[in-house]
Task: structure prediction
Amino acid sequence: LASTHVYDHTAGNLTLALGIDQHQLEELLWFFRREDPSTWNYSVLALSFVAMILGLLLLTINIVRNRKRKTHMYRETVETMQEAELEGKQALMPVQGYSPAETQKQELTPQDQRSGEVVVQWKDGTVTSLYSAASEDA
Result:
C-alpha cells in the first residue's frame, strides 16, 4: 500500500475494465493520497459556523418568548390579586351601605356622661352605668 510500483492483479484487471491504463491509475492514486484537505477543513468550518449561528438564533428566540410568557403570567397574577383584594374589601365593608352620618347615630355616647364614667350596652339594647352614682357619693 505504501508503494505505487507494486503490481496488483486485481487493479490490473480493474484498469482494463475501466479503460484506464496502469500509469494513469497510479497518478490518480498518488493524487488522492497527497490531496490537500484544506477545502474539506474549510467547508466543515463554515458548516460549524452556520450551525452555531442557527443555535444562537434559536436560543435568543426561546429567551424572548419565555420573558414574554413570564411577564404575561405576572400581569395576570397581579390582576387576579387586585380583583381578590377588591372583593375582600367589598366583603368587609359594603360601599353603598356606608355613610358617616349612620356611624355617628350608632355611637352610644350620651351627652350627660362625665369623664371616667363606664357605660355598658346590654344585648337587649339597654344602656346602664357600670357603677351606680350612689357609690361615688359615698
Observations:
- The mean pLDDT is 76.
